[in-house]
């Protein structure tokens, strides 16, 4: 496994919370072996770990919370294709070695080095299937707009990994909408619910993973990605009168930034339209998904390199 990287096996990439164990290159390799990875996956694992250790990702919170959150890895660029990371049918499911083993290696690192053991380091009330393995690639050939990594300032020829602190994907089923506004209204409705952390801890992001057919329907009407983001920002809201019925109402300070005119005022799931993150992935079929966050986290994108 160490043949997949030029880095010194004893080099410490960082300390993984909540145990704060030293994650050396060798320990990454050990957990990669247990997960069934190939050596060529090592640069992805190392870069993803570095991204997860960025302060804004808040790995400590993600590891220790009662919330069912897991790091989702999103790959872009040529390396995703070279490694055969699934970006089409069943992206969140089984059947693909790269997705399953890269995602599993990350989880083993969080368990074995970071101490994210259920009931002690990991206090998630019910957990999530995403805690086993959570790794996908963007379907760039079916994306009518710029890909996620290009949108974040990387060259199209660069290979990147984005880490996202998210829940399991929430399916959006719309087989009848023939217009962008109707389809996006369905997606916005699925993305705004009382039970999600985004509504109360929403200085964060919301991930919208459009299926290729849904993306094509929207783009055919001339909608740009910013158009999509702004529409979703305006429509993915929960009225104050409904939010006050339960959830986390009163536990957070978010009402201080929101100008509430009356109880019909809609609370957005993010504070800025740019935080509605849109990408394209999956196979044929009129389904999309939204991946809410833990709340107190921001996604991080890093270029995959193997510099010593």
Molecular structure report:
The chain has 308 residues and is of the alpha+beta class. The chain folds into 2 domains: 180 residues, no CATH class; 124 residues, no CATH class. 29% of the residues lie in helices and 18% in strands. It contains 10 helices and 12 strands. The strands form 4 sheets. Strands 4-3-5-12 form a 4-stranded mixed β-sheet. β1 and β2 form a beta hairpin. α7 packs across α8. It is globular. It starts with 11 loop residues before the first strand and ends in a 5-residue tail after the last strand. The model has no long low-confidence stretch (mean pLDDT 95). It comes from Candidatus Entotheonella gemina. This is Thiol-disulfide oxidoreductase.
What is the compact description of this entry?
The protein is of the alpha+beta class and 308 residues long. The chain has helices at residues 25-35, 42-52, 59-64, 78-82, 97-112, 148-151, 180-191, 212-219, 225-235, 240-243, and strands spanning 12-16, 21-24, 70-76, 135-137, 160-166, 170-173, 206-210, 237-239, 266-268, 276-280, 287-292, 300-303.
Number of strands: 12
Helical stretch count?
Answer: 10
The profile of the biggest β sheet is: 4 strands, mixed
Helix content: 25-40%
Secondary-structure content class? alpha+beta
Give the percentage of residues in beta strands: 15-25%
| Spatial strand order of the main sheet | 4-3-5-12
Number of domains: 2
Order of helices and strands: EEHHHEHHEHEEHEHHEHEEEE
> What is the averaged pLDDT score?
95
N/C terminus separation? 16 Å
**Which value, in Å, is the CA radius of gyration?**
19 Å
Organism: Candidatus Entotheonella gemina
Protein name: Thiol-disulfide oxidoreductase
């Amino acid at each position: 496994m160490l043949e997949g990287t030029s880095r010194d096996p004893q080099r410490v990439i960082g300390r993984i919370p909540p145990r704060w164990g030293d994650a050396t290159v060798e320990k990454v390799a050990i957990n990669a072996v247990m997960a069934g990875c190939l050596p060529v996956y090592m640069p992805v694992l190392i870069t993803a770990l570095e991204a997860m250790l960025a302060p804004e990702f808040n790995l400590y919170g993600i590891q220790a919370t009662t919330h069912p959150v897991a790091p989702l890895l999103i790959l872009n660029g040529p390396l995703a294709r070279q490694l055969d990371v699934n970006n089409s049918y069943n992206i969140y499911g089984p059947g693909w070695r790269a997705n399953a083993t890269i995602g599993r290696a990350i989880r083993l690192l969080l368990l074995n080095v970071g101490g994210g053991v259920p009931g002690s380091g990991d206090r998630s009330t019910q957990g999530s299937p995403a805690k086993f393995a959570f790794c996908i690639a963007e379907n760039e050939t079916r994306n009518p707009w710029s890909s996620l990594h290009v949108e974040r300032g990387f060259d199209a020829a660069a290979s990147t990994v984005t880490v996202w602190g998210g829940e399991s994907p929430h399916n959006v089923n719309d087989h009848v909408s023939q217009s962008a506004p109707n389809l996006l209204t369905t997606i916005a409705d699925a993305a705004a619910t009382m039970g999600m952390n985004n509504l109360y801890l929403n200085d964060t992001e919301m991930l919208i993973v459009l299926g290729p057919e849904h993306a094509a329907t929207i783009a055919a009407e001339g909608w740009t990605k910013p158009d999509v983001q702004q529409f979703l920002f305006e429509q993915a809201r929960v009225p104050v009168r409904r939010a006050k019925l339960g959830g986390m109402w009163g536990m957070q300070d978010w009402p201080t930034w929101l100008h509430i005119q009356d109880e019909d005022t809609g609370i957005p799931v993010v504070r800025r339209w740019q935080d509605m993150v849109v990408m394209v992935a999956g196979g044929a079929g009129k389904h999309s998904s939204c991946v809410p966050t833990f709340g107190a986290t921001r996604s991080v994108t890093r270029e995959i390199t193997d510099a010593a």
